[in-house]
Amino acid sequence: MRPDVPPEILALARARSAARRSRDFAAADRLKDEIEAAGWRVVDRGGESTVHPAHPADVVTPDGIRYGWSGAVPARTGEPEGDGATVILVAGQDPEPAARTLAALAAHAPAGTETVVVAGPEAALDAWLATLAGCVVGGRSPEVVRMARPVSPAVARNAGGRRAGGRIVVWIAAGVEPVGDPIGPLVAALEDPGVAVAGAIGLAGTDVRRLAPASGAPVVAIDRTLLAFRRSDLIALGPLDEAHFGETTLDRWWSLVLRDGPEPPEGTDPEPRRALALDLPLATAGIAAPAPEDPDPSEAERRRKRDLYRLIDRFARRPDLLGGAG
């Protein structure tokens, strides 16, 4: 066993090993569940067992906590939601695109807008993040969620989503620059209970593998440029599947999850909710490219295919979603 395993976890692991030796597998399974519920992972190799932290550890620095995984970020899901929106901005290794987006939001976001900036551990971000206490968006400074290691887009958005307090959650891509208020129209659009997701660029098509930007309604999904949905849906349908490694299919997958909605009452078969593309005041020429998925091109391609297969497996046989209810 690892020397840093807490005594109570060590006791559970030893009891489980004893149960396995006596072939009491029901007890062994119950003890494994207890160990895993406490945040540890059990690895069995033959007759030997070891326990490891289920997630990377947080790192405490002079500037605060850097979280090892999204679930370590303190959640606000038990708090009443506010009337406005929470904008989640994920900063890349280069802070410049995110800085432009935040400056534009400061100029145009309505009062009451919350902003959560999710950032990795890169030293190149340190100086910019230190200035955010003096930045004001919607009447308040952005909240910074710092991660202890580079994370995937799904992990970053889950981390930011745990700090969302507004009724509407908005993803905005780094480099997008509002030239007017894009938040008010999104909040208004989501007053309609038949709309599940709204944003700047709609995607259409009858094949989930080949959704493309659409110039008009109806649309199937919303592109990552700017994408908004209800906080209540994030709580009910989330978190995002962190098996998604890249951004290429994440916006499509989450749009379709939102449109599919919660499990309907037994005996009912409601129509899917809609995706709605709006004409919003945005400059998108400087939008940052999707984060590199892997430095190894062959591994990146393999992961992109896995993301696509995940999308296909869940939604390819859903003509009710892919017909374009906009």
Please provide a written account of the structure.
This protein is of the alpha/beta class and 326 residues long. It has two domains: 7-53, no CATH class; 64-322, Alpha-Beta Complex (Spore Coat Polysaccharide Biosynthesis Protein SpsA, Chain A), CATH 3.90.550.10. It is 32% helix and 21% strand. The chain is built from ten helices and 16 strands. The strands form five sheets. A seven-stranded mixed sheet has the order 7-6-5-8-14-10-15, sandwiched between helices. Strand 5 (82-90), helix 3 and strand 6 (114-119) form a beta-alpha-beta unit. Helix 1 (7-21) runs antiparallel to helix 2. The longest helix has 19 residues, at 297-315. The protein is globular, with a radius of gyration of 22 Å. The termini are far apart. The mean pLDDT is 91.
- Our count of domains comes out at 2
Low confidence ranges: none
Distance N to C terminus: 55 Å
Shape: globular
Topology:
Blueprint: H1 7-21, H2 25-37, E1 40-45, E2 48-53, E3 59-61, E4 64-66, E5 82-90, H3 96-108, E6 114-119, H4 126-130, E7 143-146, H5 153-161, E8 166-172, E9 177-178, H6 183-189, E10 195-199, E11 202-204, E12 212-213, E13 221-222, E14 226-230, H7 231-237, H8 250-260, E15 274-277, E16 282-283, H9 297-315, H10 319-322
Parallel strand pairs: 5-6, 5-8, 6-7, 10-15
Antiparallel strand pairs: 1-2, 3-4, 8-14, 9-16, 10-14, 11-12, 11-13
Helix pairs in contact: 1-2
